[in-house]
Amino acid sequence: MSSITIIAVASGGAIGATLRLLINGIVNKHFAHVLPLGTLAVNLIGSLLIGMLFAYFHHNSSFPPYIKTFLVTGILGALTTYSTFAIESFFLLEAGHFMQAFANIVLNLFGTILLAGLGYLLVLNFTK
To answer: Can you tell me where the transmembrane regions are (predicted)?
Structure first.
């Protein structure tokens, strides 16, 4: 693995983690806290963006690999947070909040898949 790849992931990761902190804080401050909406927001945003990036890369194969790594593995890898989603869902279940836990699981799972596909299709249709 090259040093440029490591630098790309590390610098993108710093940006993505900071964005996750900011988005999570803003969403949780401004919306009621029935579900962990901050985590849901970063997972949905990240899924939309990864779909869009993969579609863009599909049509722009000359894009340098370290830029792809910076954006996808670095920024989006640190922005989205499956482990946080998992523990928050567990805590909801443990507290007996079964409906909220189910809603959180369904929204994260299906919402992220839906938005990844939507992002991909949006970019594909705009690059035709």
So the answer is: 6-23, 35-57, 69-93, 105-126
